[in-house]
Amino acid sequence: MKKILLIISLFVMVFGLNKAWSQVSVISTGGSSSSATYGTLGAAITAVNIGVHAGTIEIAIHSNTIETASVSLDSSGSVGGAIYSSILIKPADSSTVNKVVSTSAAGVVLLNLQGADNVTIDGRPMGLGTNR
Question: How does residue 96 score in pLDDT terms, banded at 50, 70 and 90?
Answer without folding.
Answer: low
